[in-house]
Amino acid sequence: MKYVALCVMCLLSICGPFGISQDNAKAIYKDPHAAIPDRVSDLLGRMTIEEKVTQLESGWVLPAIAGMSSSTIFDKGQLNEASAQKLAANGLGTYAFLDEFTSTGDTKNPRTGAVRRNLLQAWVLKNTRLGIPVMFHGEALHGAVRPGATTFPAAVGLGATWDPDLLGSVFTAVGRESRAAGNVMVLAPVLDLSRDPRYGRVEEMYSEDPYLVAQLGTAAVRGLQGLKSNTDLLDENHVYATLKHFVHGQPENGTNVGPNDFSERTMRSVFLYPFEQVIKNANVEGVMPSYNENNGGIPSHANPWLLRDVLRGEWGFKGITASDYTAVNELYSRHHLVANAAAAGVLALESGVDMELPAPASFPGLVDAAKSGKLPIKDLDEAVSHVLAAKFRAGLFEHPYVDEDRTVAEVGNKQNIPLARKAADEAIVLLQNKTDILPLDLARIKTLAVIGPNGNKERLGGYSGLPPYYVTVLDGIRKRAGSGVSVVFAEGRHISEPDTAPNTNSMSIYKAPKPETDEKLLSEALETAKSADVIVLALGGNEVVSRESVGYGMIGDSDSLDLPGRQMDLVREIVKLGKPTVAVLLNGKAYAITELAAAVPGILEGWYLGQETGNAIADVIFGDVSPSGHLPVSIPRNVGQLPVYYYKTPAARRGYVFDDNSPLFPFGLGLSYTKFSFGKPAVDKEAMSAGQTAHISVTVTNSGTRAGDEVVQMYIHHAVSSVVQPVIVLRGFKRIHLEAGASTTVNFEVGSEQLEIFNARMKRVVEPGSVEIRIGDNSAETTSLSLSIAK
Q: Binning pLDDT at 50, 70 and 90, where does residue 412 land?
């Protein structure tokens, strides 16, 4: 079948609209002009308990990962009627085609996913009594996870841009591609805080800082959804966003799903802060609870204080709470809170979880629980109403099918390439530039050697789709250097064995590199590098050594922050050659690169930069772009220093014997090829009451010889407070562009939003006293002014 739309028209002509009986033909829920609450109420009143429960369930196409069996309702491109009947006889809330993470089978063609969605949708509309459409969901952490979709920098790289406007544009494009592919809801963005780089999922997080995460998360959600209020209709170019993971926090031991046992004050001030800000300012539709336990032994999926009291009661959240994958069942199988899966389903729903993803496991037990009275019908109806309202607002009852031609036209749209390049350019952080070795002068180079395991491999990071192309570091440098420079390459080392991105059949068999393999690669690299005038070391991590740890032999967390494998052995030998050398890091986490920083004069932190990786690296290495990224995390000197997040309290981190306890590179740092100078900050009033707002200004001048971007950062320091506060906290930032010699005045506001703290009674207050406002281009180098808050 080439065009499923023909079959859809046949279904409509034979079965009537949505394949439902004429008894429902004039139902209020079918009237697109009726108010959505009325449509929801009417439909709820027509539904059986079985039909209600299935709206809270999900289905998926499961790729064969790490020993788990493959499951599908499709057979050679056709819908398997028996499987569909088993899954969706009474309807289905949502469905995910997770095999689109992979490059297997016929999923390489963007049209294939649209066809399969339409086949399943048509079956549900034809064969269920009420004809409630399926709401498809997918991933979109840094691009629509679809074959051929535009791939932007990983979340940590987007965090390094400090550019909310850019993230708004990026996620507008991601939302458009995701919706064109047929998804209505995406499981992004991640608002967790990157406070422990041992944790393999830090690449999914924007920053260690709650304020920066809140600003970038708000921009991402607005881009994805395009909504001005939580009652607006979702248009055909946008998708619902889902905030996650509520709330991972800082898992114990730096390992996935580990406990996050912090005080309520820390939870509210730090880990909940980004979620609260985004929910209140961006009208987000979805929230996903986290796997782990909070509040001393209460998993998030069984935490009514978190999901009902705080999320809905205090913050006014109106949307859907969708479980993390298998997390409801894990209340039984992992956390042992209940005796069986059915009890886990009741506990989760009563605690505030609306939907069970990715497949029915515990929620089917809700049917018997509701019929027996163990589960109040009103609680079931509340969850179902959230799902139905989202479907009505998305227009699924009127437009349930995917436009396959639009899928092909929009997924990976070439118009998004400049945006992918801009995002990659802005994400690169110049950490070190001793002797001004960067940018490299091509006029003085005859032979340039790219050496290292990340020089000629596709490095995208986790939760990535399959981009239409990928430019490696080697490709980008060769293209920019041109025919006048010989660019040679040697791998030098492996990071893992094999040293390739995971595929569907090999996630559990990756091992450390073999010594004999590495020695051979080292020999080749030294021979290659001998002829070079300049060496670019392409180092870092890959998708195996830092990733989500899901078990089944697939571990992703680390007890070391050294460059993985034997990469530092390679660096030591290359440095002995005495050639001008710079290092480019591609990775999902901040490694402790103390020895590397001492060995090479120039270091670029590139994170994972998406499909434009090599072009962006070349832009910066050769000076076409002045680096402008700033660190969204603090980089430690070693693993024993953890934690190193910058907003420590006054008594924290007194020091270690014979060692420096400051970070190797501080939060907010980002060097440039030009020089920016900051004037003395000024304030429009030196004293104010708690309800007033002060206006801070600072003049920034580009005193260098070329144009560039700077990120101006404002931090708050409370001189005295009734409850211990961090030494400084970020409460404002602005990214600016200045031509050489130009100046501009940057303005900030300081009011209740910036000054509030939780007092001893857990009330938000602005306390009287002296406050320092600190302005600078990183957390360690600031200029301050004082502001007095009156009683």
A: very high
Which among 392, 368, 246 is positioned nearest to 317, based on CA atoms?
246
Closest CA to 72 of 59, 85, 88: 59
Nearest to 585 by CA among 595, 577, 596, 574: 596
CA 387 to chain CA centroid, Å, is 24
Please give the sequence-ordered ranges of beta strands (E in DSSP) within 25-154, or none if there are none: 58-61, 74-75, 78-79, 94-97, 135-138
| Residue that the structure tokens 């304020």 belong to | 211
CA angle 375, 380, 383 (to 5 degrees): 140
User: Would you list the DSSP string of 669-714?
Assistant: --B-SS-EEE---EES-SEE-TT--EEEEEEEEE-SSS-EEEEEEE
Query: Residues with Cβ < 8 Å from 14, sequence gap 6 or more?
Result: none
Q: What are phi and psi of 686, to 5 degrees?
A: -90, -15
408: enclosing H helix or E strand: helix 404-410
DSSP element (H, E) containing 568: helix 567-575
**Cβ atoms of 707 and 751 closer than 8 Å:** no
* Cα distance between residue 388 and residue 372, in whole Å: 24
CA distances from 284 to 120, 229, 248, 390, 455 (A): 27, 9, 19, 11, 39
For 38-79, write each residue's pLDDT tens digit: 999 999 999 999 999 999 999 987 654 433 444 578 877 789
β-bridge pairing 286-289 and 320-321 = parallel
Going by C-beta distance under 8 Å and a sequence separation of 6 or more, which residues neighbour residue 763?
none
Residue 71: DSSP 8-state: B
DSSP string over 197-250: TTSTTGGG-S-S-HHHHHHHHHHHHHHHH--SSTTSPP-TT--B-EEEEET--S
Smallest CA-to-CA distance from 615 within 460, 416, 418 is with 418
Q: E strands, 703-768, where?
A: 708-718, 729-738, 743-750, 757-758, 764-765
Could you tell me if 219 and 232 are in contact, meaning their C-beta atoms sit under 8 angstroms apart? no
pTM of the entire predicted model: 0.95
Q: What is the pLDDT of residue 19?
A: 43
Q: Which residues contact 682 (CB under 8 A, 6 or more apart)?
A: 696, 697, 698, 785
Sign of CA dihedral 674, 680, 681, 683: negative
Distance CA 455, CA 539 (A): 8
pLDDT in tens, 69-126: 445 788 777 899 999 999 999 999 999 987 665 544 444 678 989 999 999 999 999 9
DSSP 8-state class, residue 589: S
Could you report the per-residue pLDDT of 502-556, keeping only the tens digit for each?
754 444 578 899 999 999 999 999 999 999 999 999 999 999 999 998 876 688 9
Closest CA to 186 of 138, 221, 146: 138
Here the tokens at position 168 are: 């708004």
